[in-house]
Design brief:
By secondary structure, the protein is mainly alpha-helical. The chain contains three helices and no strands. Helix 1 packs antiparallel against helix 2.
């Protein structure tokens, strides 16, 4: 009988050790996950900052190019006001077109994840069929 008792203790000891090792492994994995996520967030913010700086330079470049276009067109039409009106009108049409296109793109695609919703609906149907 004592052999059985030692065998049970050994199994219990092995199970306890396996649980401790699993807990340690899970904690290490979670620490790794947290570290990786924080590094990815830092990288994301650096990328976002670079995009903002690039947008500032792009706006400055567009302003200079627009001014140059107005000055060049003024020599062609002999009127700086008319040149500014023409360039401003063309830029306004481009802005309106891009705005309308962007608005239609946002309304046609919702933020709801369609594939996930279909998968959840299918899972619910399968579960309800099994329960019935």
């Amino acid at each position: 009988m004592q052999g059985n008792g030692n065998g049970n203790q050994t199994i219990q000891g092995l199970v306890g050790e396996a649980l401790r090792e699993s807990t340690d492994l899970a904690q290490k994995e979670f620490t790794l996950f947290r570290t990786e996520v924080s590094q990815n967030i830092r990288t994301l913010f650096m990328g976002l900052a670079m995009v903002v700086v690039a947008a500032i330079f792009a706006i400055a470049a567009v302003m200079l190019l627009t001014e140059s276009l107005v000055e060049w067109l003024a020599t062609v039409v002999n009127s700086e006001a008319l040149a500014a009106l023409i360039v401003g009108g063309v830029l306004a049409l481009i802005a309106i077109g891009l705005g309308l296109w962007g608005r239609s793109a946002m309304t046609s695609s919702s933020l709801m994840p369609q594939r996930t919703m279909r998968s959840l609906k299918r899972d619910a149907e399968v579960l309800s069929e099994r329960g019935a």
